[in-house]
Amino acid sequence: AFPNAEVSVPEVEWNFWMSDDEMSRASPGRMQDLFKNNRRVFNPLKDRVATHKWDKEVGKGIVAQGTPGHSYGHTSYIVSSGKDSVYLIQDVINHAVLSVRNPQWHLGFDQDPVKAEATRRKTLDWLAAEKMPIQSFHFPFPGRATIEKGADGSYREHIIG
């Protein structure tokens, strides 16, 4: 649909999925299938792929933030315009209630569940402190919320309707 478009992929994620060494170590089943599928999708686009680094602006007002665990190069984005910002949280949280209220729960589709939990806790702490709204495709429509941290260390989501 967009023959001249450049595809921008987080550098850590790209290097992982395109590494023959990593692919040779992939466990049978899901991980091997993920390597095959990523390469099936990206090989025809290789000449148009540019990579971007974490903690750098990838477009005007868009900063990539490393949030590894769901995948090794998982990346979320802070989108800002003027004094307003929203956090595109991606797969740091996978359910509006379960992942927020139980950040210690490990999910079967996280590639590194221990790292995913650490990232989830760190990200939820930061979002609660910053009071930055999030946008999540795993939340009920319209997918916007804020995160609050309770005195007992628990987290709560507040859906913005």
Helical content band: 25-40%
Helix count, DSSP H or I runs of 4 or more residues: 5
> What percentage of the residues does DSSP assign to strands (E)?
25-35%
Classification by helices and strands: alpha+beta
Measured between the Cα atoms of the first and last residue, the distance is: 33 Å
Compute the gyration radius: what is it?
Answer: 17 Å
H/E series: EHHHEEEEEHHEEE
Shape: globular
Low-pLDDT sequence parts = none
Mean pLDDT: 94
What's the total number of strands? Answer: 9
Written description of the protein model:
- The protein is α+β, with helices and mostly antiparallel strands and about 160 residues long.
- About 30% of the residues lie in helices and about 25% in strands.
- It has helices at about 10-20, 20-25, 30-40, 100, 115-130; strands spanning about 5-10, 50, 55-60, 60-65, 75-80, 85-90, 135, 145-150, 155-160.
- It has a seven-stranded mixed sheet with strand order 3-4-5-6-7-8-9.
- The radius of gyration is 17 Å and the shape is globular.
- It starts with 6 loop residues before the first strand and ends with a strand.
Can you lay out the helices and strands and say which pair or pack?
Blueprint: E1 7-10, H1 11-18, H2 20-24, H3 30-42, E2 49-52, E3 57-59, E4 62-66, E5 75-81, E6 84-88, H4 98-101, H5 113-130, E7 134-135, E8 144-149, E9 155-160
Properties at a glance:
161 residues, alpha+beta, seven-stranded mixed beta sheet, two-stranded parallel sheet, 5 helices, 26% strand
